[in-house]
Amino acid sequence: MKNRQWLTPLALAALLAACSDGGDSRREAVAPFAGLYAQGITRYLGAYTPMLSEVDGAIVRHQFGGGDGPLCLEGAPYSMVTRDQGSQDLVIFLEGGGACWSDLCGATSVAVPVIPPAGINDPTRADNPVRDWNEVYIPYCDGSLHAGDRDVDTDNDGSADRFHRGLHNLSAALDVAQRSFPAPRRIVLAGNSGGGLGTVFALPLVRYVYPGIPIDVINDSGVGVARPDQPDFLRQLMAEWNLEAFIPADCEDCIPPDGHLTDYLVWQLDQDPDTRLSLLSYTQDSVFANVFLQIGGPAFEAALLEEMAQQRDAHPGRVQTFLADGSGHTFVQLEPDKTAGGVAVLDWLGFMLDGDPQWVSVDDR
Prior knowledge:
The protein is α/β, with parallel strands linked by helices. Helices cover 29% and strands 20% of the residues.
């Protein structure tokens, strides 16, 4: 397998400058998110190797050591899984499991290195459009949307007892992905709940690891709706988890006054022309509306409908939305048979991946 040569921000800047003179064909491959790379989001790529990799047929479970590297929220070791089915195509799946910050902490704190055989992760399900694809399964246990980089001393005894190591974990998992599947034909980056929001932060890193390869993002129930007109809520989370480097310094509108993360999604697709985006949500998702955002179902629905229209208008044909009435939470594993506008989730995703013109926005209104 080829070893990837990681570019320093200085080397990347030099390469970009070279590509700008003379129309070098490499320009599109390295241009997306260059500013974020210069801000340091790739700082842990290439840093970690699994302590143990156990092979079980097509499945390999990779476990990392502790210390200053990959780690779960309360100090448990981090693990992830690959499944090689001999495909040219690759699914990178980010699991969900809550969130944790100073005001509210409710998150999974152990990484379970088992791909749940459900919905989009079930290779035996005939209607699963990625059933025979290779897979990188990235468990969630950091409480910071797969992206945090801050240890916290919650009881002020001088020792950290909460470890937001999402960026370490994600970077380590993507290194394993690149070594295991160095040249896929195309990629699906998928996640649900905290993993749906995780796809937002993972996309620039996946693009860095796999330049020039088409990426279809499936964001299930992490679509970027936050507290309306309260941008300080997002800023608080980013400060507590040390996520500021993911927001470009020259994008003042990425955390806009309306308080939502959706403008950042628009910016990402502006940056990366080889990316398409499916956004899935219940109209009054109770986990977000009532638990984490604490704004109530009607306020969540009003914001959701407005923000999803913004996504579709910003990138017609590259963004489609799947909006089901109700207060449920997540589809692609828990409710793959759920419909919106009469179309089942897995069929709708299949339209996307097959290039079928039936991949259009659907809802129950």
